[in-house]
Amino acid sequence: MSGGKKHDALFDDVLSGIDSETESKSARGGARFLKRSTSIGETLAGEREEKVLHWVDPATCRMWERHNREYALLSEENCGDLIDGIRAQGQQEFPAIVRRLEKEDHAYEVICGARRHFAVSWLRANNYPQFKYLVEVRDLTDEEAFRLADIENRDRNDISDYERARDYAQAIQLYYGGRQKTMAARLDVSEAWLSRYLQLAKLPEEIVSAFATIHDIRELHARTLKPLLSAKASSNAVLARARQLAKAQAGARAGQGVAMEASQVMASLKAAVAAPASPKKTAVTHEGDPSGPPMVERRQGRKTILELPNQMSRAGAEAAFQRFLDSRYGAS
After folding, report:
1. What's the number of CA atoms in the CB half-sphere (13 Å) around residue 327?
2. What is the dihedral sign for C-alpha 194, 199, 205, 209?
3. Residue ranges of domains in the chain, CATH in brackets
4. Which of 50, 102, 123, 285 lies 20 to 30 Å (CA to CA) from residue 216?
5. Are 94 and 135 in contact (CB under 8 A)?
6. What is the pTM assigned to this prediction?
7. What's the pLDDT tens digit per position in 146-174?
């Protein structure tokens, strides 16, 4: 069974017995067990285990400090699809993964499920107080929590390349001793793939701020800018342009102007070090007939081309040619 189908099968099983009565059962400490366990947790633990689900107030949960999604960037707009889905279904469909906290201000720590947490919290604050947050409690180490969150979110488009890259850059030091090969093996990805994201995390802050939002920053952008940032001369030019763009983007966020799209940002950064175009040489004119068009002098490589109007008289041509000789060699 493919990873996606396996994932769907798990949640189909989770939902098969959850109905409107589940919420009242949760008040009595209720939960239910999965009939079969095909979750990511088994991949981590390598054994069958029963999963307990709870309906809880989202206010009792906090985000794990190593959560790979920037919670502050979540909004009614970018979570609108999920808010509408939960409202239409009458409940949250897929459980978030949490760890239990002891002697803390919150009862649970969210490992996977930030958008679901935001959506349920938003609904409760906007005339739907009956909604609760569906969670599955796991006993996980930090490294296991990191891998679980990565597997859960790796193919999701609503987590940006930059958020993922920043998460990997922290994890490689925290859990893998800075060893890229070890981390790639644990995540079951190629070293080359992982290396590209680690490189993205190294983008200077000036470059990051030049984009309207971190959601716009892609792994390809880091690859494109890498050679420009490697040489001091080009790097200085790119960073100087980035600082200019950052000010403009900040103004746009404050309502002054329109934010630049990622393609425009990249074009501007690359243009900062582009070779200046050779100035076009202006044609030189030499007057001939007083009332007629002049003779035109043009440079073409190592040659000089003189263009005489067809209607120019002999006297006019001689006068124009004399002016050309004088300008080239000096008056006789």
Report:
1. 12
2. negative
3. 3-154 (3.90.1530.10), 203-271 (no CATH), 284-329 (no CATH)
4. 123
5. no
6. 0.60
7. 999 888 878 777 788 998 999 999 999 99
